[in-house]
Amino acid sequence: MFGCCLKIFNFIQTCFMDLRLISILMCCWLAVVNFIMVEMGVYNNPVFVAFGPRAGLSFMHVAIDTQYKYTILVIMIILHTFISDFIADSMSPHIINTLQDMRGRYLPHRPIVYYIITTLWSVYCAISHLFLIFLALGQLDLLLVRLLSDIIANMVTTTLYLQNKTYNPEKFHSHEKKEENNHNNEFMLVRSGNNSSSSAATAIIAGDSAMLIDKNNLMQDVSSTYDDTDDDERRI
Q1: Are 64 and 55 in contact (CB under 8 A)?
Q2: What is the pLDDT of residues 117-155, one digit of tens each?
Q3: In the chain, how many H helices and how many E strands?
Q4: By the 8 A CB rule, do 66 and 53 touch?
Q5: Which of 15, 101, 175, 223 is most buried, by CB atoms within 10 Å?
Q6: Rounded Cα–Cα distance for residues 91 and 97 (Å)
């Protein structure tokens, strides 16, 4: 039983570290969810599986019952998706890898700039989530428009990320190993620094104790010397 659990844990760990396996797992789960939705009859619902404006379609409690309103909504979905993905793919990595990195000590901007950026980002995310909630309550064609816009926007930002990168798994793993070793060495240096401080204090205490012992031994030697001299004088 324990061996089976260990194998499952090793498999989960391998999937977690390999993006290709994670992608396969994601596709499998989406297939399961799609199968469940088919069995539930979601795709047979004419309210959800609909295209174009209709009397029952609404967005933020506003009826989308004309072609003009529907066109404006579709354009807003496309633009919002492009802008949101572009901002998120640019801002989130910088905040996580630069501002929130505990090992980093230097920043390219002043602290007030990061306060303003993170505040604006929080406000934008709140409004964007509200937009997506009402969009999810719409119909299938609007979700497909957002999905296609999201795929195109991610392809653009991924291309920007891949411009200065080269496929070389050997160098990638060696660099990761080097970074891990450097991190471990830094941790050992900090730990050894703390240990050396305590060792120095212990050495000082031990040194003081040794000096006291030496003084006591010296006094005993002197006393024994005087005692031997007195004994010799008495014999004479």
Answers
A1: no
A2: 999 999 999 999 988 888 888 888 899 999 999 999 999
A3: 6, 2
A4: yes
A5: 15
A6: 10
Dihedral (CA of 184, 185, 186, 189) sign? positive
Q: Is 62 helix (H, G, I), strand (E, B) or coil?
A: strand
Maximal CA-CA distance, the chain: 135
Q: Is 50 helix (H, G, I), strand (E, B) or coil?
A: coil
| Nearest-angstrom CA–CA distance, 142 and 135 | 7
Of residues 187 and 213, more confidence is placed in: 187
| 136 Cβ neighbours under 8 A, 6+ residues apart | 143
Distance between CA 144 and CA 149 in Å, rounded? 8
pLDDT in tens, 69-121: 999 999 999 999 999 999 998 888 888 888 888 887 888 889 899 999 999 99
Query: Quick one: tokens of 178?
Result: 């080097």
pTM over 0.70: no
Instruction: Pick the closest to residue 142 from 71, 37, 88 (CA basis).
Output: 71
Amino acid (one-letter) located at 222? V
State residue 87 phi and psi, 5-degree precision. -65, -45
Is the pLDDT score of 194 beyond 60?
Answer: no
The partner residues of 84 in beta bridges, in order of sequence, read none
Q: Can you state the percent helix, strand and coil of the chain, rounding each to 5?
A: 80, 0, 20
